[in-house]
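Regression report. Comparing outputs from two consecutive submissions.

Submission 1:
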Amino acid sequence: MIFINYRRAGTSADARSIHLYLRRTFRPIFIDIDSIPMGLPFPDVLERALAKTIVMLVVIGPSWTDARDESGRRRLENEEDFVRMEISRALAHKVTVIPVLVDGATLPRLSDLPADLRPLIALHATTVGHATFPQDMNKLAREIFPAIRRSNIWFWLKTRLRPRGLAFLVDNDIASQARQLARENQHLHSRLNIIEAENLRLHKELKELRRPDR
């Protein structure tokens, strides 16, 4: 499962756009907008989703570290803040976590993060911009695919990755091998056609040799 972690204040539109783009290729994707059935406890649903998560995308906007609650306290300072809890548990469970920087955001400073989120700083981040959205999302999809391969659950890949996405996301090594096999197959077909033509010529000559002299 791909889990999209975001803060509604500031990055909800970006998270939704990322979700809609990736769902054309990957399934399932967890995002709280449409992944939580009504009437179910939010923490319980999150726990089940995190247990199945292979990749977590942490959508970070310019105000991500400074988001505050009604009392003016920074949300990241609250241990029960859902954004913090989701990231912390993903990091603890060795989930592949990819920070996704939107709207010109940069990675937070170490001093702006609680201790359980500080490993986030060392992770490779990717940027998704409005003007370069398709190119940036293609790059992100290519970064997600190796994590799925490393998870050793090809059954998930076969059942959840749509054929259109499979052709797009096959990594360079496999694509190169496929092209090489296609070339070899084409060469064999050409050789087979030559052999069949030669065989037909020899068969005609043999028939001529077997004809009685006139």
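Submission 2:
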Amino acid sequence: MELVLVNRDFSSPRAVEGIDNIGNIDFYASYVMTEIVLNNMCIGLNPEYLEKSIGECDWILMLMEKSSMFETVTGEVLAFATIKKNKYSSHNNSNNLKGGGKQVKQKCLYVDVLCSQPGKGYGNILMNAIKRIQKAYEFPQICLCSLESSIGFYQRQGFNFEERNNTSDVYCGNQMPLMLYDNDDSGGGKRKQTRKRRMRKAIINCSTRRT
């Protein structure tokens, strides 16, 4: 298995441990769409949304059984993610929670779609690779909108719920929570307690919207 990062802008790729950087994203957009059908991935996601995400993303990250038969990197796609650079997340400044908090805006690495062949652990491999991309490109956060069925997976990966705000509604609509991964563990117990409150609130909101 090999990890391949396909770039839309290949002018200044950065080295990421264990990941091959390549270009030609238009070819791989079509290639991944074919592999989705062949390998039973992305069940439940709207095909038109998938095609739009693959066509508009900055990067496609693929975990694949690489074939050496061709000059172009090909092979069975086991998992993939579409990623956008320079998205913005927004959160309350925890230093000012009594006054309702101040909205803080910062860049995040936005994972639009993540799909894998089910039950084989490929999603974990892909997410660990995304964290390495975040570190190499110096993004303070990874952000994504999670389907309710995937919330547990992202929590195990270290993601936390973000309180609903204008940013989360723009990215995720009113049906999915915005989830953030932040490598900075500073802030101690108060920050952890705040994250737990956010998780409980988001779970309640998800349950309320279903009824």
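Expected: both submissions complete independently.
Actual: both completed, but the second showed a warning that disappeared on reload.
Relevant detail on submission 2: The first helix runs from residue 25 to 38.
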